[in-house]
Design a protein that fits this description.
single chain, alpha/beta, 6-stranded parallel β-sheet, 10 helices, 54% helix, elongated
Length: 256
């Protein structure tokens, strides 16, 4: 798992959390958007709000640890809120009824939780958020295709994969395995390419898929005969290439 930290209020808890995560084989960074999740720790500064807004536009889930500060905008726009104390949890949950406020105590200031317990709880929180987020994204894609009235099974399946990879592109992180999976689906099923091209235009995906196909040719050996639209090598293709995540040679810290 790759997590981006943004720290607006330095605290010993942050150093402990980073140490625990990295020792468990996860990656903590302080810049970049090719991450699974962003964790903002501290006061609701202008920079913190800007990062949260940018993450929402790229569909990256955000955890906020207010560290005893209150900001209604941050509360309502965070995917989840993490607090240290029961009273703080109850207070913030009343202010933001649609945002889940999680209680995970700080082992530096209390004996109620160990360092090992902190790590387990934080990882469980991250995992739960990522699973719920991915489920919602997939549900939104299914709903979008269904509203188009497209019922043919293979077309539906291929369109779903196209839209999901478009979402991963927004996240600036497309695993190369996702391209290989898409290639397998495209080469092992028959569908009407004219109907597909029409649907891609309706979904405003035509240009993206044309550029994506060129990258799948390079990364997953897709051949022209299985491409619903002519592949393009253009500026968008270059942007897609930049966000492809290939396997780590040492198989360490894989992105989920």
């Amino acid at each position: 798992m790759k997590i981006r930290f943004f720290i607006s209020s330095p605290n010993d808890f942050v150093e402990l959390l980073q140490q625990q995560l990295e020792e468990a084989g996860h990656t903590v960074v302080y810049e970049g958007s090719d991450v699974d999740l962003i964790h903002i720790l501290g006061a609701p500064t202008y920079r913190a709000k800007k990062i949260m807004g940018g993450a929402r536009s790229r569909l990256i889930p955000v955890v906020w640890s207010p560290m005893r500060t209150v900001n209604k905008w941050m509360l309502h726009h965070a995917t989840a809120v993490h607090v240290w104390g029961r009273h703080e949890q109850e207070h913030l949950q009343k202010l933001a009824k649609n945002t889940t406020v999680f209680l995970i105590k700080n082992p530096i200031v209390t004996n109620d939780i160990t360092k090992r317990g902190l790590l387990a709880s934080i990882i469980q929180l991250y995992d739960n958020i990522l699973k719920k987020h991915d489920t919602q994204i997939r549900s939104n894609i299914e709903e979008r295709i269904t509203k188009m009235g497209e019922t043919e099974e293979v077309l539906h399946q291929v369109l779903f994969e196209f839209l999901y990879i478009r979402y991963l592109f927004q996240r600036h992180a497309i695993p190369v395995d996702a391209l290989r999976n898409l290639r397998n689906i495209m080469t092992s099923n028959n569908y009407n390419e004219d109907d597909m091209e029409t649907l891609l235009k309706r979904l405003k995906l035509h240009d993206f898929i044309a550029s994506l196909e060129k990258v799948i040719e390079e990364e997953a050996s897709l051949t022209e005969g299985f491409e619903p639209v002519p592949a393009l090598d253009n500026r968008l293709t270059k942007k897609i290439r930049k966000v492809i995540i290939k396997e780590d040679i040492n198989n360490e810290n894989p992105t989920t």
